[in-house]
Design brief:
Layout (H helix, E strand, L loop, with lengths): L1 H5 L3 H33 L1
Length: 43
């Protein structure tokens, strides 16, 4: 996967970077929602 990514043209590499960052941001928000749900369940 890494070989494939680093061999991409610059525009495609940047597109992949943006997509991965979007995925991680979604994952962070999802995890925060789960944590908030656990705290609410404990109250």
């Amino acid at each position: 996967l890494v070989k494939c990514l680093i061999s991409l043209p610059s525009v495609e590499y940047r597109t992949a970077t943006v997509e991965v960052l979007a995925l991680f941001n979604w994952l962070r928000r999802f995890a925060e929602g789960l944590i908030e749900g656990v705290v609410e369940d404990e109250n």
